[in-house]
Specification:
The complex is a heterodimer of chains A (226) and B (357).
Chain A lengths: L1 E5 L3 H15 L2 E5 L2 H10 L4 E4 L8 H10 L6 E5 L4 H9 L4 E4 L4 H15 L6 E4 L2 E4 L4 E4 L2 E3 L3 H12 L7 H8 L8 H15 L8 E4 L3 E4 L5
Parallel strand pairs in A: 1-2, 1-3, 3-4, 4-5
Antiparallel strand pairs in A: 6-7, 7-8, 8-9, 10-11
Helix pairs in contact in A: 2-3, 6-8
Chain B lengths: L5 H35 L4 H37 L1 H11 L21 H47 L5 H32 L8 E4 H18 L3 E4 L6 E4 L1 H18 L5 E8 L5 E7 L21 H6 L6 H11 L3 E7 L3 E8 L3
Parallel strand pairs in B: 2-4
Antiparallel strand pairs in B: 1-3, 4-5, 5-7, 6-7
Classes of the chains: A alpha/beta (226), B alpha+beta (357).
Chain lengths: 226, 357
């Protein structure tokens, strides 16, 4: 999952990015003004945008309005010091999906972020089940055939993303876009390496029954669509 | 005794006037008729006096009816005339802090005599609304300014606490949090100064203050900061001057101005502080830096609370956005004034005038 934080207090953005990366293995980009944030949100496919309202160059509400006018469906969590009912109402009415006021609890922010992303992928159940795999997105515990499996952060990140879109073809470009931030050195053969290591754990083949390769298109976790 | 309602006053007045008129008419008519009848038919005086009484009764009955009808009519007229006032009052009753600014009494059809009254009312409401809006804005800004460092401190400590960190990481988290606490502390003390300035009246702290010495101390306090930025502070030679005021507040006032000039003026620039006397005896202190990049449209807002030319830049220099608001508050408290001019050719100059007494 990849998250964009638009927040002019660089240290706050850094703290949130650190916690999201450590606690839920999200790839995080940060931007410190509205114009730049809007540009980033328009050019990369984020799974969540955490948006401050008082931003230099362009206010957060304007960023939100423009994103929604563009037809972008990315969930937006408004994170601001403004706490009046009118502000909350305005933010949600303009297309915001959630509203959290500063100061906030990091654990709450993480939980809300996870919930927003679940909803965006139409997965209300925090436990994703694919075949014999159970991925608890709340605790990040993965079990395979009832036994706990310990994954590295990157392996988990990829498995969670594939499971959110299980039954769909996920292209390699999608994986790169949603699993890596701008700061990471990503090479598309890294994707193959992680697919290989996931298969080794859960789907030793051939033939592969859990993680399928669709030639020229990408990968599918679970049933290949007809 | 409660004053009588307008409608009763006017109807009573009308009734009394009508009564008086009818009484006079009756007396005149009675006297005239009697004389006439006595002359024309002196023998028939017995009959005439009977008829005369009938006539008089008719006159009194008619008059009485006129008085009652007149009183009722005048009451109705007064009620009708007062209708715009009743409407206005109903509108006023419906005013809350939410619709204060939108009431213009457009639906009230007031006669010319009442129009000045109603327009004065709506002007008062608009003024009140302005004050209220400013107050609300201030509260919103203050809460934002306080919440931001709080959010920073909390997020820093929580991020540090979520898992085991190295000694260096803990130290950084603590140092950053201490910085946030400093920022909050500074803001709190500025807000307290502003709150005290809002209390009106000549405080007990007012005394004879050596203005030249206050300025010299301010310059000494900020010399290091100016040197750090490669600039200098120049205090023009000045005679000893004493004014009535608070030494602490005046020190804050000029401290804020000099600090602004040092931080927001160009790097390596010179800040000049001068003290002069006006023809009317007022003392004028000017703080003059070599900047001049303040856009003209921003000048009037510079003294507003939490106004910042560039939000992100001011935050990194540690400004609260209250310095100039406090400076103006202090100048006003001393019965003085403050103004600012800025142009690339002449630099930025803040001019404070203070009464000499």
């Amino acid at each position: 999952m990849r998250v964009l934080i638009v927040e002019d207090e660089a240290r706050l953005a850094r703290n949130i990015a650190q916690v999201l990366a450590e606690e839920v293995s999200y790839a995080v980009d940060t931007s410190t003004d509205g114009e730049d944030g809007l540009h980033m949100a328009r050019t990369s496919p984020y799974d969540l945008i955490i948006l401050d309202l008082m931003l230099p160059k362009m206010g957060g509400l304007e960023v939100l309005r423009r994103l929604r006018t563009d037809g972008r469906r990315t969930p937006v969590l408004i994170l601001t010091a403004r706490d009046s009912t009118e502000d909350v109402k305005r933010g949600l009415d303009l297309g915001g999906d959630d509203y959290l006021t500063k100061p906030f609890d990091m654990r709450e922010l993480v939980a809300r972020s996870k919930a927003l992303i679940r909803r965006a992928y139409d997965r209300p159940d925090p436990v994703l089940a694919v075949g014999d795999l159970r991925i608890n997105t709340a605790t990040r515990a993965v079990t395979f055939k009832g036994k706990a499996a310990l994954l590295t952060a990157t392996e988990y990140r990829m498995l969670e993303y594939l499971a959110m879109r299980s039954g769909e073809i996920v292209s390699k470009a999608d994986l790169v876009d949603h699993l890596y931030d701008f700061g990471s050195e990503n090479f598309s053969n890294v994707i193959e390496v992680y697919i290989w290591s996931l298969r080794k754990r859960f789907d030793p083949g051939p033939p592969h029954r859990l993680i399928h390769t669709v030639r020229g298109q990408g990968y599918v976790l679970g049933e290949v669509p007809p | 005794m409660r004053p009588l309602a307008l409608k009763w006053r006017i109807s009573l007045l009308v009734a009394l006037v009508l009564l008086a008129v009818i009484a006079i008419i009756s007396v005149v008519v009675y006297v005239e008729l009697r004389e006439a009848l006595t002359i024309v038919a002196p023998d028939a005086a017995r009959y005439t006096s009977h008829e005369m009484r009938e006539f008089l009764g008719l006159l009194v009955g008619l008059g009485g009816t006129m008085v009652v009808v007149g009183a009722i009519l005048s009451t109705l007229i007064v009620l009708w005339g007062l209708r715009p006032i009743r409407r206005t009052a109903a509108r006023l009753r419906g005013i809350t802090e939410r619709n204060l600014g939108s009431e213009d009494f457009a639906g009230v059809r007031a006669p010319a005599e009442l129009r000045p009254f109603i327009s004065a009312l709506s002007e008062t409401l608009a003024r009140l609304n302005g004050v209220l809006r400013q107050q609300r804005q201030f509260t919103a800004d203050a809460s934002h300014e306080l919440r931001t460092p709080l959010a920073l401190a909390k997020s820093t400590l929580q991020a540090a606490r979520l898992r085991g960190r190295t000694q260096a990481e803990y130290e950084r988290a603590i140092d950053e949090t201490l910085g946030d606490l400093d920022r909050m502390e500074h803001l709190m003390s500025q807000l307290l100064v502003l709150a005290r300035l809002d209390e009106s009246g000549d405080g007990p702290e007012f005394a004879e203050v050596p203005l030249d010495a206050v300025l010299a101390r301010v310059v000494a306090d900020h010399a290091a900061k100016a040197a750090e930025r490669g600039g200098a502070l120049r205090l023009a030679p000045m005679p000893p001057v004493r004014i009535r005021g608070s030494e602490d507040l005046l020190g804050r006032l000029f401290g804020n101005l000099v600090e602004n000039a040092v931080i927001h003026g160009p790097r390596g620039g010179t800040v000049r502080i001068t003290l002069s006397e006006e023809a009317d005896g007022r003392r004028v202190v000017c703080v003059h830096d070599e900047g001049g990049a303040i856009p003209a449209e921003a000048l009037p807002q510079l003294f507003d609370r939490f106004y910042r030319l560039d939000a992100s830049r001011a935050r990194t220099t540690g400004g609260t956005g209250l310095g100039l608001a406090i400076a103006r508050g202090i100048a006003l408290r001393h019965g003085g004034g403050i103004e600012i001019t800025s142009s690339p050719a002449t630099g930025t100059r803040v001019r404070v005038s203070l009464p000499s007494g």
